[in-house]
């Protein structure tokens, strides 16, 4: 990290975005860094990425040298600031796949969930990434990256699940159930016949 580096001004960002050569150089630099991490850009339009041929060796490096996590966070923020925000979600999704689904990058999982996901600027994309993470997280009861209410919705659980009812709610539900049973019992009691049993009587 360069502690002497200054933050880009709004004017500098606008100048960069208007400079085709600068944007092209950034794209080439991005591909170079991806290659260092064992990843390749397979679609310049969408930002889709996949494993490079040498991914095993580079993934080992990522797992053993977690200082790269901060670099990746900065790369994601750079993409969002300098004209490639649509590249953010595909890269984060890739890391979610490798950490939560394939289990190849366990040592960077915390950084992916705590920093990579929330560097994505697009709210819809970010929400989709959090949802993907939740659905593929082993211990869902320990998932802390979105509210419980949203987790319940994603899991298809009812907000009135017994697990989330208070004791008073449970007792009230039991009382209503007992009242229903009593009412049904009374309705099923045979009533005395007061009229003629057939047309001849």
UniProtKB/TrEMBL annotation:
GO molecular function terms listed in the Swiss-Prot or TrEMBL record: opioid growth factor receptor activity
Region (Disordered): 178-201
Gene Ontology cellular component list: membrane
Domain of life assignment: Eukaryota
Opioid growth factor receptor (OGFr) conserved domain location: 1-149
InterPro entries assigned: OGF_rcpt, OGFr
Family: Belongs to the opioid growth factor receptor family.
Protein name: Opioid growth factor receptor 2
Species of the source: Scophthalmus maximus (Turbot)
């Amino acid at each position: 990290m360069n502690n002497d580096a200054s933050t880009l001004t709004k004017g500098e960002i606008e100048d960069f975005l208007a400079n085709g050569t600068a944007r092209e150089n950034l794209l080439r630099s991005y591909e170079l860094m991806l290659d260092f991490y064992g990843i390749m850009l397979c679609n310049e339009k969408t930002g889709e990425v996949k494993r490079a041929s040498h991914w095993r060796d580079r993934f080992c490096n990522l797992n053993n040298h977690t200082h790269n996590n901060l670099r990746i966070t900065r790369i994601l923020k750079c993409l969002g600031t300098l004209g490639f925000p649509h590249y953010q979600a595909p890269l984060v999704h890739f890391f979610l796949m490798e950490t939560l689904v394939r289990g190849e990058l366990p040592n960077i999982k915390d950084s992916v969930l705590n920093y990579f996901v929330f560097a994505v600027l697009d709210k819809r994309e970010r929400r989709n990434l959090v949802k993907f993470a939740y659905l593929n997280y082993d211990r869902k009861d320990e998932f802390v990256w979105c509210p419980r209410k949203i987790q319940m919705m994603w899991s298809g659980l009812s907000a009135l699940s017994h697990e989330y009812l208070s004791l008073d709610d449970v007792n009230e539900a039991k009382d209503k159930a007992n009242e229903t049973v009593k009412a049904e019992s009374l309705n099923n009691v045979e009533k005395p016949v007061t009229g003629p049993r057939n047309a001849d009587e």
